[in-house]
Amino acid sequence: MAHPNLKYLRKGSLPHMFCPGCGAGQILNYFIYAIDDLKLDLDKLVMIGGVGCMSRAPAYLNTSAIHGIHGRNLPFATGIKLANPELTVAILMGDGGTAAIGGNHLIQAARRNLDVTVIVDNNGSYAMTGGQVSPMTPSGATTSTTTRGNLESPFDLCKLVEAAGGTYISRWTTAHPVQLINSIKKGVKHRGFSFIEVVGQCPTQYGRYVLGLRDPVSNLRWLKDNSITMRQADRMNPDDLVGNILVGDFVEKEFPTLEDRYLEMEKRIREAR
Amino acid sequence: MLGNHAVAEGAIAAGCRFFAGYPITPASEIAERISERMPEVGGRFIQMEDELGSIYAIIGASLAGTKTMTATASAGYNYMQEGIGYAVATETPIVIVDVMRLRGAEQATQSDIMQARWSASGDHEMIVLAPSSVQELFDCTIEAFNLAEKYRNPVIVLSEMTLSLMREKIKIPDPSKIHIVNRKRPTVPPDEFVPFDGGEDGVPPMSSFGDGYRVLYTLNPHDKRGMITGDLDVYDELYRRITGKIQRAVDDIVRYEKFYMDDADFAVIAYGSESRSALEAVRRARDEGLKVGLLKLITVWPFHDELVRGIAEQVKKIVVPEMNMGKYVGEVKRASDCLAEVVSLPLNKGRIHTSAEILSGIKGEAR
C-alpha cells in the first residue's frame, strides 16, 4: 500500500537529495502533515524555494513551484501575491538565504505584512556548499571558513522579523514535530506575514564539525536537550538562557496585509468614479 | 508626451498589469506614471527594495499569469542580470526597460548596447528594441510585450537618457487598432500537459499559478516535464530549444527601416537616437550627389546577419556611428564578412553625432 501522503509529492521527483538524517526532509514531512490537516487546495498553493538543502524541498511537492534562485524567494512571492492575492504562498528556505543574501527582502516583506508563510530551516551553516559560516552560526564555532572560530554573533531571526513587522512568529526544532506541525498550520492559516524558524540538524556539516555529533539521533537529542520553552525561560536567570534555543509562538496578531490594502485602495478608486 | 510617460502608456496599452521598480534617474518617471495609472486599470504597482526585488517580483507576477514590466537605468540594470537568466531558463515573459546612462553620470549614451545582449550568465538569446523617438518608445513597448508573450523570453526596451526625458508629439491609436499578442495556453488537461515541450516553434504553451497545472519552474537543467536533472544531454537539448526559438525567428522579430538604400554605394547603420542625425547626414550626402543610404535598426538583438551581409554585398563602405567607444560595429564587421569596408564612428560625450560628423565619416575625412 502506498503511503497516504505520497500524493503530495511530485511524481518522479524521488529519490530526494537530502543526506541521511537531514532535518530538511523532516521539515518537508511536517509541512505535508500540516497541509494535509488543513485540507488545502493544492491547485492554489505555490511553493517557493531557492538554492540550498531546504530550498530544494518545494521541487518535491506536487504543487506549483519556483526553485533555483538564492535568497530571492520573497520578491517572487511579492509579485505572485499582488498579481493573484487568492493564491496561498509558502516558502521553504535555509538560514543563509533568509538571513544573509535575502536579509533585506525578509525585513521588507515582513514590513509589508505580505500574506505568505516562510519556514526557515536554520542548520547554522551553508550546508550544501561545505559547511561555511552563516549569519546563524554561533560565536566561536569552527566551520570551513572560520577554522579559528567564528568572530561574529548570530541573529535572533524571530526578534528581527518581529521588529520588522511580522504578524505570526514562532520557533521550534525538528525534535518538536507536534508543535511544529501546529505552528505551520497556524502560519499558513494566518492572514499576514508568518515566519517559522525551525532549528534543524545537519549531521553532515554543523552536527559533525561544530557539535561533534555525527549521527542524526544524537543531533536530534542535542536539539531537544537545548530547547527551552517560554514558560521555562520565565523562571530562569537571563544569563543562563545563552546558548539555548528558545521555542514557542512569540507573536500572533492581526494587521492589514499589503494585498488587503491594495484591494482597499482599488475599491476607493472605483467608488470615487 | 514625455518619453518615459510614453513607455508607461505603451505598457498599459499592451496589457501590462503588474509593475515593480526601484527609483533611478533617468527612468523614474516610468514608475511614477505607472504607479498612478495601474490601480485605474485594475493593475498592481509596487516599489521594491532594490532592482533584484523588482526583477523577481515581475517574474513571480508573470508566472501568476500577468503581463509584467520593470524599468531601470544602466546602473540598476546591472543588478537584474541574475533574474534575466532565470526568466530565460524558465521561459517567463517579462519586459525590462533599460534607459542607458553614462557610467557614474547622468548623461546620454549607448554604452550598454552589448550588455543588453550578453550580460546574463549562461546560454541565452535576447530580444532588444532600440527606439529613436517618443513615438517609437510607445510603439516598441507594445511590441516588447507582444514578443515576450509570443517567444516566452525577456524583452528589453533599450531607451536612452535623451529619449526618456524628451517631449515629442505622439499618436496613441484607438485600443481596438493595437495589435496584442497573448501567451499560448495549454490545450490539454493538467495530467497530459508537458510544460516544457516546445512543439514546432520551440515555444511551449504556458499555464498560470492557480489554474491547476502545478508546474515546477527551476533554474536547474530540467526535462520537458520540468523535472530537475543532472543529465547534460537534456541541458544541451533544452538550451538548443531556448536559443533556437529566437534564432529561427529572426525574420519575424527584427524590425528595421531602410532609407535611400536601393541605389546606395555607401551605407550608414545606426540604432536609437543616432539614427536621427544619421538620416539627416544621408539626406545631406544625397544633396551633394553621394549615393548614401541608411539602415535604421529598431530591433538590435537578435542580430540580423543576412540583412547586414546583404548591405555589405551592395555597398563599398558601411559607417556605424554610436554613442560609445565603438561596440555594435563589431557585429556589423562580423556579418559583413570583409565584403565592405566597415568604419566605426565612436563618440561618448553625452550627445549624438552631428549630421556633419557622420557625413565626414562617410566621406572618410575624419575619425
Short description:
The complex is a heterodimer of chains A (273) and B (367). Chain A has helices at 23-38, 73-83, 95-101, 103-112, 157-164, 177-189, 206-211, 216-225, 230-234, 238-241, 258-272; strands spanning 45-48, 64-67, 88-94, 117-122, 125-126, 132-133, 168-173, 194-199, 227-229, 245-252.
Considering residues with a beta carbon less than 8 A from a beta carbon on another chain, report the largest interface and each chain's count.
A-B, 36 and 47 residues
Count of DSSP strands of chain B: 13
Mean pLDDT of chain A: 96
Proportion of residues in extended strands of chain A: 15-25%
Overall radius of gyration of chain B: 21 Å
Total number of strands of chain A: 10
Q: How would you classify the quaternary structure?
A: heterodimer
Q: Could you spell the SSE succession of chain A in H and E letters?
A: HEEHEHHEEEHEHEHHEHHEH
Overall geometric form of chain B? globular
Low-confidence residue ranges of chain A: none
**Domains counted in the coordinates of chain A: how many?**
1
Overall tally of domains of chain B: 2
CATH topology of the largest domain in chain B: Rossmann fold
Describe the structure.
The complex is a heterodimer of chains A (273) and B (367). Chain A is of the alpha/beta class and 273 residues long. Chain A has a single domain (19-272), classed as Thiamin diphosphate (ThDP)-binding fold, Pyr/PP domains (Rossmann fold, 3-Layer(aba) Sandwich), CATH 3.40.50.970. Chain A has helices at residues 23-38, 73-83, 95-101, 103-112, 157-164, 177-189, 206-211, 216-225, 230-234, 238-241, 258-272; strands at 45-48, 64-67, 88-94, 117-122, 125-126, 132-133, 168-173, 194-199, 227-229, 245-252. Chain A has an 8-stranded mixed sheet with strand order 2-1-3-4-8-7-10-9, with helices on both faces. Chain A has a two-stranded antiparallel ribbon with strand order 5-6. Chain B is an alpha/beta fold. Chain B folds into 2 domains: 1-253, Rossmann fold, CATH 3.40.50; 257-363, Rossmann fold (3-Layer(aba) Sandwich). Chain B is built from 14 helices and 13 strands. In chain B, helix 2 (28-37) links the parallel strand 1 and strand 2 (44-47).
